[in-house]
Amino acid sequence: MDLATLIGLILGFGAVFFAGAVGGTDPHIVFGRYEAIVLIVGGTFGASMTGFPMRTFIRGFVGGLRTVFVEVDFHEREIITTLVTFAEKARREGLLALENEAAALDDEFMRRGIQLVIDGRDTEIIRRVLETEVSHVQEIGTKSEAVFTSLGGYSPTLGIIGTVLGLIGMLKGLSTMGASTNVAGSIGVATAQAFVATFFGIMLANLMWLPMATKIKERYGQLLLIREIMIEGILAIQAGDNPRLLEEKLVAFLDPKERESEIEEGGAVEAGYSASSA
Predict the structure, then answer these.
(1) Angstrom distance (rounded) from CA 200 to CA 195
(2) Taking residues 18-43, what's their average pLDDT?
(3) pTM of the entire structure?
């Protein structure tokens, strides 16, 4: 049995029944309805967990949080400068001259690609290996985005369920109200309490889950662009392309404003020469 399905169903239905059983009646508490929060959080996670294998859900959720909260700087221009410098050195001294530089690279993907070139692997093999890794990264990002999109989709629905439970409790309570009870006031408070669940559900979906899913998509999009630049640069180095032509090819991946800035500063080739002469 899929453990995620079992836990998800228990968590989701448990949250609904808990909220229905507790159903707070304190007229002085409106937004502090803890049973509504339990319903939204527990029900949302339970429903989302049911839709994914356990490993996919946990990795997608934890990895997504890391992606959202950990700032990552993508330096496309620095990567282009490095690749162009490598191409210039490979043309002058041969591919084996890149071995020390490749070992010093921080990016594992780029280091592995350059090492494949140094080892003399076939172009098609290098492309296949690197594109397979890119596909894996893309799959991780897609699954992580799907987990948070799922949370954002179920959260308002669970809020509506909470509101329905609250209204059911309110209507049930009308039959027990005495003649001296302020019926209008009691109905108003009960109705407000009933809609608290919808408020929390919509709030969490639109202020947290869905914006996080958008940021995950954006961050992985930037990462995939970086990987595409690296693949083109690595294959161009193996083919022995002219550094100038390589620079033009890689700069085409940048935003038009970034390209203008690149031209104004003299281009990556000049930057590479300056760094090597320093």
Answers:
(1) 9
(2) 64
(3) 0.80
CA 187 – CA 178 distance, rounded (Å): 13
Give the span between the Cα atoms of 77 and 254, in whole angstroms. 8
Q: Which two tokens stand for residue 151?
A: 């949370």
Distance CA 35, CA 162 (A): 9
What would the mean pLDDT of 125-130 be, rounded to a whole number?
Answer: 95
Structure confidence at residue 53 (pLDDT): 92
Nearest to 18 by CA among 197, 181, 213: 197
> Which candidate, 80, 82, 92, 78, places its Cα nearest to that of 240?
92
| Closest CA relative to residue 239, chosen from 81, 102, 126, 107 | 126
* pLDDT tens digits, one per residue of 153-209: 999 999 898 888 878 777 776 666 554 455 555 666 667 667 888 888 998 899 999
Residue extents of the structural domains in the chain: 3-72+136-208, 76-134+225-277
